[in-house]
Specification:
single chain, FAD/NAD(P)-binding domain, six-stranded mixed beta sheet, 20 strands, binds flavin-adenine dinucleotide
Length: 409
């Protein structure tokens, strides 16, 4: 790409060297973990540097690439006999346009983090709050299914931030806010409960992109409908005295004089909540959290009397992994493990990560499989020559802006 790469482990200056391995090598028990590194395009992060570079590369070839905005691919066009993918149907400006693909189609439509039905079916979650795009609706999955593709890794996804990947509850259709850490929400007279009024995990324990330790295995969280952080007045004052990284915090707080009343207003089980707070206080007295092993120095007894507070959380999602299975040549496989001719995939649609995600692996596979898929398609020799595709004007809306009013020629 014409840049000198920066090794996160050896050269990155924004975090002290002793912490870098901890960040990059998320599964240190895996063989070969010490070789895992992030390759950065400069000595910085969270500044979209890679995106800006890639965008510029597309602009540099603007006369050779069409870029269409607000153009939704809806179907693949497949030859019914040879099974070759001949093109794709795209909806733009109210029209359905059949675009010919002489050498191949590469599906890169991302995940299904905004498709409620798929989230419920594949991830068994009533709802997930997206941290990234709100437009990925799993279209690539439906398109690949329609031409007989085999699916993989449907159950795996990554999340990030506070309390093993939770965000503050956000209305459906909105992006949720990433809060990486907020010590006052997991140290003190504060705990997280779910629908039965009970705690679910070690609030301050380690997590790996939303995977928590479950009897020897790191798994994605099982999600609930009513995850709430609960705390007492003393904790509220500690929170208020500190830094509040969420501007709607006070607006979203539920306050009640008693735990019973708090349970009623949140919908969590009242007996469960009362028992849980009593248990938590007993752990503090005895000097050990028998439930989840939270560090006793992180725990403080809840006051006998109210007021008590609750704030609703939501399980968040960075990105999903599920989608059509691909082989090392980025070819999408059918249900008999044969490549579907002229069909490829890259990125988070059918990502290669089955379970344990070493940080940085998502973007690495976007770049690596993107390159492989591009090269494979470019080298196809049995070109499709189908006269039935629609004629349209060459358009690069990235370069020219979205002034296009008509696409058909
Ligand atoms: C906050 C955040 C931080 C992250 N940090 C890291 C990190 O540090 N390291 C790392 O490796 N990964 C990270 N990830 C994950 C990584 O960003 C994603 O895995 C990666 O961006 C996926 O790229 P993609 O091109 O496959 O999908 P996307 O970037 O989601 O792009 C898919 C595109 O397809 C479009 N699309 C969807 N459906 C259609 C359709 N029917 N027709 C046409 N277009 C369609 C979408 O609008 C979107 O533009 C992070 C993710 C988030 C949200």
């Amino acid at each position: 790409m014409g840049v000198k790469s920066v090794s996160f482990i050896n050269d990155f200056s924004k975090i002290p060297k002793e912490y870098r391995a901890e960040v990059a090598q998320e599964y240190p028990e895996l063989k070969g973990h010490e070789e895992h590194d992030y390759t950065l395009v400069h000595n910085g992060w969270f500044d979209a540097a890679l995106w800006k570079l890639l965008r510029q590369k597309v602009l540099d070839c603007k006369n050779k690439i069409d870029v269409w905005y607000e153009a939704r691919a809806s179907h693949l066009i497949q030859d019914p006999v040879s099974k070759v993918i001949k093109g794709v149907q795209i909806e733009k400006l109210g029209q359905k346009i059949n675009v010919l693909a002489r050498r191949g189609v590469i599906l890169t439509t991302g995940g299904f983090e905004n498709n409620k039905e798929m989230i419920q079916n594949y991830l068994a979650a009533p709802k997930l709050a997206p941290l990234g795009t709100i437009y990925n609706k799993g279209d690539g999955i439906s398109m690949a299914q329609e031409v007989g593709a085999k699916m993989w890794h449907m159950y795996n996804y990554e999340s990030l931030g506070l309390l093993h990947g939770l965000s503050f509850d956000t209305p459906e259709g909105e992006r949720s806010k990433l809060v990486l850490s907020w010590p006052e929400l997991n140290h003190g007279s504060v705990l997280m409960v779910v629908d039965d009024g009970k705690r679910y995990f070690n609030e301050a324990g380690p997590n790996r992109h939303g995977h928590i330790f479950d009897h020897g295995i790191w798994r994605v969280l099982r999600s609930h409908e009513k995850p709430y952080i609960i705390f007492d007045q003393k904790q509220y004052e500690t929170i208020e005295a500190g830094q509040i990284p969420y501007d709607k915090f006070n607006e979203k707080l539920i306050k009640a004089d008693t735990l019973e009343e708090l349970a009623k207003r949140t919908g969590v089980d009242a007996n469960g909540l009362k028992e849980q707070v009593e248990m938590f206080n007993r752990f503090v007295e005895n000097g050990h959290d028998d439930q989840f092993g939270l560090d006793i120095k992180s725990m403080a007894k809840f006051a006998e009397d109210g007021p008590f507070y609750a704030i609703k959380m939501a399980y968040n999602v960075l990105n999903t992994q599920g989608g059509p299975e691909r082989n090392t040549k980025a070819e999408i496989l059918d249900v008999n493990n044969n490549p579907i001719p002229h069909l490829y995939a890259a990125g988070e649609l059918g990502g290669i990560n089955a379970k344990q995600y070493q940080g940085g692996g998502n973007l690495a596979e976007c770049l690596i499989f993107g390159k492989i898929a591009g090269e494979q398609a470019a080298n196809v020799t049995d070109e499709v020559t189908d006269k039935a595709s629609d004629k349209y004007n060459g358009i690069n809306e990235l370069a020219d802006g979205d002034k296009v009013k008509d696409i058909a020629r």
